[in-house]
Amino acid sequence: MFSTLIMFACAYLLGSLLPGFWIGLIFYHKDIRDEGSGNIGTTNSFRVLGPVAGTATLVLDLLKGTAAGLLPIVFHSTINPMLVGIAAILGHTFSIWLKFKGGKAVATSAGVLLAYNPQFFFMVATVFIVMLLLTSMVSVSSMVGFSFALVTSFFYHDWILTVVAAILTGFVFYRHRSNIQRIINGTESTVPFGWYHHYQQTHHK
């Protein structure tokens, strides 16, 4: 029991590490909470700090989720990696280093999924990338990607995967509620590539 608590605590602490926030402070002398969308995740890191910092943030957020999902192997535990991964996701969203505030945990959730089922992860990642290339919006791609994960999980006959996917999908939609309003209003930020970005550029000249 004690080792299980330690494992979940380690997962939470892994998740609470905030590479986007720290990269901004250490290397760029910027607090990304004060610029762009104010979020400490990948999208705002790209927007405020540039592609190098944004890519580093994406990779590190993904890897900390994967590391948390692999903790049952380290602790020789039979606990489902998805359940341990929830602690990392909560750590990212409610980080102890930012007075229990944080990001939207999309990359961290994807990292947990990678540890649990790499094939499933790459399917969801493919949907995310396709949607990003079409819509040029990370928010839309994230919500569609997680919705796809939820629907597809039923075909795996894995109730833990389905339950966790349902929780994460609801969580992602909740964390993106302001984005949903901006999408409806036509004011959502876009990335500088993809079909919709090209459409905006060609029709606003």
TrEMBL record:
Q: In which pathway does it act?
A: Lipid metabolism; phospholipid metabolism
Q: Which residues form the signal peptide?
A: none
The protein's name is: Glycerol-3-phosphate acyltransferase
Stated membrane topology is:
Multi-pass membrane protein
Family, per the entry?
A: Belongs to the PlsY family.
Q: What is its EC number?
A: 2.3.1.275
The alphabetical list of record keywords is:
Acyltransferase, Cell membrane, Lipid biosynthesis, Lipid metabolism, Membrane, Phospholipid biosynthesis, Phospholipid metabolism, Transferase, Transmembrane, Transmembrane helix
The residue ranges crossing the membrane are: 6-28, 48-75, 81-100, 120-148, 154-174
What catalytic activity does the UniProt entry give for this protein? Answer: an acyl phosphate + sn-glycerol 3-phosphate = a 1-acyl-sn-glycero-3-phosphate + phosphate
Relate the protein's function as given in its record.
Answer: Catalyzes the transfer of an acyl group from acyl-phosphate (acyl-PO(4)) to glycerol-3-phosphate (G3P) to form lysophosphatidic acid (LPA). This enzyme utilizes acyl-phosphate as fatty acyl donor, but not acyl-CoA or acyl-ACP.
The listed locations are: Cell membrane
What's a single GO MF annotation on this record? glycerol-3-phosphate O-acyltransferase activity
The UniProt entry, under InterPro entries, shows: G3P_acylTferase_PlsY
To which species is this protein native?
Leuconostoc holzapfelii
User: Subunit composition?
Assistant: Probably interacts with PlsX.
What PANTHER family has UniProt attached to this entry? Answer: GLYCEROL-3-PHOSPHATE ACYLTRANSFERASE-RELATED, INNER MEMBRANE PROTEIN YGIH
